[in-house]
Each structure stands twice: as C-alpha cells, then as structure tokens.
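We read letters as residues; the fold follows as tokens. Both lines appear below.
***
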Amino acid sequence: MTQYFSNFPTLQYKLPEMQNSLLATDVTKRFVLRDFYRNSLIDFYRYDIIEGQRPDNVAYEFYGESNLDWLILLPNEILDPYYEWPRGQNELNEFIRKKYGSISTAMATAHHYEQIIQSKSSVRLPDGETLDIPERTLIVDQTTYTSLSPSDRKLVTNYDFEISRNDKNRTIDVIKPIYIPSILEAFRSLY
C-alpha cells in the first residue's frame, strides 16, 4: 500500500506539545475506486485466495507489480487487511485462541442461534446437470431456538462463526489487467 499513499497530498501537522510541525500524508483524501468503475464497463475475475497469499502476492500474480496491492484491496472494500483478508489455518487458530481463550472454548460457546428455513439440497436439471440449493437460515433468539425441533435449528459456535467469516473473505474480485493503466492514470490525475 506504500505506492497508494505516495501520491497523496501532504500537510503540516503540529501537536500542541511539539515545537516543530511534521509533514504528514493527508489520509483524509481517498481515491474512491468504486466511483471510477461504476461509470465504466470494468470486468472482474472472481478469485479464491490461496492459503498464505497476501494482497501483494495477488497483485504480482495479476499485474506483475506487488506494489499494486491497493488495487486488490480497494475494489473489495478491504480497509483493514488484518481482519478482512483471509487467514491461514495456523494464523486463524491463533486469532481464535487470543479472542476466546482457547479453541475448545470457542467450539463450546454459542455465537448465535439459527432457524433453518430451507435445508441444503440439490436438484437434477433436465440436461443432467445438478443444481445445488444452499441452506437458508434466519438468526433467532435462544428461546425461539429451543422451541424448534432439532431438524429445524442450528447452533453456530464462536469457532464456526470465525471459520465461516474467514472463508467468506477468501473469494474476491480482481480487476482485469487491461483496465489497470486507465485506473492508474485517473489516480495520478487526482493527486
């Protein structure tokens, strides 16, 4: 992300206890990439992040430059890669241990309760292809949960919740490389 901030304007910043002011990057200015591609016909690749990959690795893989990692993060509205980028299994386990005390505590503690509205199923189409229909659930309170039959309810533990959230972070959109020069030009012209 260092290249992303390199073109930002700077400002003089002075704290009351300081004698001299500092030159600081004005991070209040933002390049809203969404506004840029909303007005264009930009195509994306759907990409599943491989365990251990970082934004700079993905940028290098698609654009040949690791310092374009901000073009991986911004279209996916990832503002905090520490929490919004998928963790590897060891890193995720360590995060869970720090947050909940232990893996076993996270597995034994309810995060929330769900009512199953539609069970997961599959349908065979006339052409022979199988269409998977995902499970649909509704978050409910504990009283409602206990009143439901076991086949109509689902307990989501803290561990399940963290695994699911991490898996959702794994699939991202990557701007097709053909559009990168025009995005970089628009970015440079703003700053």
